[in-house]
């Protein structure tokens, strides 16, 4: 991940997971706008660590998405310059 030269928007799938949450943090540190998909954006206990990340209030948007549900990632990837696909099915 290099230095962002302009506000670039990327999507990180599985944003609340261990690997993806570190990626979200790093991207926010570098100035990226991040769309992160999670199973339930309202489940505060599962997303609080993302919301508490420096820069999150200004540059992080959480989207509800299910890996096995057709079309559930459409809103999250709309307008993004790239996607980091980190989500894995749990069923």
Automatic annotation (TrEMBL):
| SUPFAM superfamilies, per the entry | NAD(P)-binding Rossmann-fold domains
Keyword Cell inner membrane belongs to the record? no
Which residues does UniProt call coiled coil?
A: none
Q: In which pathway does it act?
A: Secondary metabolite biosynthesis; flavonoid biosynthesis
Residue ranges annotated for the NAD-dependent epimerase/dehydratase domain, each copy included: 10-88
Which UniProt key words apply to this protein?
Answer: Flavonoid biosynthesis, NADP, Oxidoreductase
Name the Gene Ontology biological process terms.
flavonoid biosynthetic process
The GO molecular function terms of this record are: oxidoreductase activity, acting on the CH-OH group of donors, NAD or NADP as acceptor
Q: Which family does it belong to?
A: Belongs to the NAD(P)-dependent epimerase/dehydratase family. Dihydroflavonol-4-reductase subfamily.
Mind telling me what this protein is named?
NAD-dependent epimerase/dehydratase domain-containing protein
What organism does the record attribute this protein to? Pinus taeda (Loblolly pine)
